[in-house]
Amino acid sequence: MRTFSTKPVKERALLVGIHHPQTPFPVEDCLEELALLADTAGVEVVGSVRQNIRRIDASTFIGRGKVEEIAAHVKQNEVQVVIFDDDLSPAQARNIERSVRCKVIDRSALILDIFARRAKTKEAKTQVELAQLQYLLPRLTRQWTHLERQAGGGVFTKGPGETQLETDRRLVGKRIALLKEELAKIELHRRTRRSARAGAFKVALVGYTNAGKSTLLNALSDAGVYVEDRLFATLDATSRKVYLDPERSCIVTDTVGFIRKLPHDLVASFRSTLEEVREADVLVHVVDLSNHLFDEQMETVGGVLKEMGITEKAIVIVFNKVDLVMDQDLLTSVRRRFPDSVFLSATRGIGLDKFREVLIRQIESDIEEREITLPVGDSKTLTAIHHLANVLETHHDNAHVTIRFRARREIVRRILDQRKKQDELAAFD
Prior knowledge:
Elements: E1 11-19, H1 27-40, E2 43-52, H2 64-77, E3 81-84, H3 90-100, E4 103-106, H4 107-118, H5 122-136, H6 148-151, H7 164-196, E5 202-207, H8 213-221, E6 238-243, E7 249-254, H9 264-269, H10 271-279, E8 282-288, H11 294-307, E9 314-320, H12 328-337, E10 342-343, H13 352-365, E11 367-375, H14 379-388, E12 390-396, E13 400-408, H15 409-428
Helix pairs in contact: 1-4, 4-5, 5-7, 7-10, 14-15
């Protein structure tokens, strides 16, 4: 009896990497990471092509001679998709496709495809679809008529003499506007949730993809966040309350991983998620010390944070996966370079106590002790102090109450602002 396999057939891919004077990474390392991305996307890599160039060719990116070489590889190895490690212009991608006679995509398209596959929640799906459409809008051909079902019918939906391509672009533009409205609602909801956590000390885990952020959150809180040894295993920001000792706790948020050449449209679309990073009191930069490119990955993360305008935030560096590092000289060298960092293995629980101690010190350094005298009738400020701060001492007289309290700097600032507003209202009356 004949049996048929239900296992999906993987697309066969050829990778293309270039090296030119402005490239900071060795082409071999770039292709190694591109192969990991392709594997995450469910593609079978059957070969790679390298090219050293002095300048980018405007029409084919790598020059016609190299394109002909790629075409021969495609034919010989039955390749279905050619993946470039660098971004291609729409014209470059079309010109290469005509020559190699198969699908051609770039690194940004591959990352967007991975995000689309990995998105689980409504928020993540909305963010990824918006990024995809913004990326694809300048690359439209005649392939988007299915969007008519989403845009709806009716009179006056197509102008006289309008081409199909113009119709497609208008439909995509409408869809982009709709997705932006959805994300604005999601961002408002997230802002409301963040304001409800205002009294808590907030920690955001950042780092290169697959550095072990989700594993670390699970080790600290039993959060049950999905973990897989692949790039971009999780896309959704997950927050959990973590008890560092019987008296102190914080909110720890696991954020989406960064990567070299992260598409700008993706960063913009995930703004509401990445806002958790901006609102955090301290960032924990998780680094995979077992990766030989950890230095470059740290630079990439720093670059993304700088792009987001986050340059003055307190950062704790955590070197993860130390159990996989056999080179003791490397460990010694990194300890000397980063004396205030934490070395741990989130999988095996090594170094977690030291990490908790570091977070406790961060919390303690954020605490202020203040004394404030209020009119007895200022119930709003009194309620805020008792709700958000640790009241140490209270003194009353006929008209005023003096309170000594301890609270985080952010809470102290809010209480003082509240008191200022009450004074302004009293002066106005």
